[in-house]
């Protein structure tokens, strides 16, 4: 036998809304914990805006990190001309190359691939 409780519909809807709010709060706290732990990074508007405007992701992230093409080339082991070609859209770069660039920029390969 199960116990049942009858409550007004408005009270039920209020409780459902509170449950949703709690789930949202828990999700927000989980994101904040990942940011505090250094696992996640907030993306500033200059990055988001540049990516939304379909600017080359390698250039957007490189400039955000304050690197020149030469500095990124040295940090990643990718030739500077290849970095320039990827940024200009003349080349896409192999997965291996994009991995090296992503590691040097502290992002994922997915962050460097244009949609």
Describe the structure.
The chain has 115 residues and is mainly alpha-helical. It folds into two domains: 1-40; 45-112, Orthogonal Bundle (434 Repressor (Amino-terminal Domain)). Helices cover 66% and strands 0% of the residues. The protein is built from seven helices and no strands. The chain has helices at residues 9-36, 45-52, 57-64, 69-76, 80-88, 95-105, 109-112. α2 (45-52) runs antiparallel to α3 (57-64). The longest helix has 28 residues, at 9-36. The protein starts with 8 loop residues before the first helix and ends with a helix.
List key phrases describing it.
115 residues, mainly alpha, 434 Repressor (Amino-terminal Domain), 2 domains, 7 helices, 0% strand, elongated
Structural class: mainly alpha
CATH hierarchy, class of the largest domain: Mainly Alpha
N/C terminus separation? 55 Å
Query: What's the helix count?
Result: 7
Mean pLDDT: 93
For the report, how would you describe the main beta sheet?
none
Write the layout of secondary structure elements.
Layout: H1 9-36, H2 45-52, H3 57-64, H4 69-76, H5 80-88, H6 95-105, H7 109-112
Helix pairs in contact: 2-3, 4-6
């Amino acid at each position: 036998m199960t116990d049942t409780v009858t409550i007004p519909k408005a009270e039920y809807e209020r409780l459902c809304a509170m449950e949703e709010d709690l789930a949202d709060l828990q999700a927000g706290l989980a994101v904040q914990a990942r940011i505090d732990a250094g696992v996640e990074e907030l993306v500033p508007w200059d990055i988001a805006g540049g990516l939304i405007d379909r600017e080359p992701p390698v250039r957007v992230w490189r400039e955000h990190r304050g690197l020149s093409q030469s500095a990124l080339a040295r940090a990643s082991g990718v030739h500077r001309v290849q970095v320039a070609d990827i940024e200009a859209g003349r080349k896409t770069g192999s997965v291996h190359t994009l991995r090296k660039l992503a590691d040097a920029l502290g992002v994922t390969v997915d962050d460097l691939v244009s949609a």
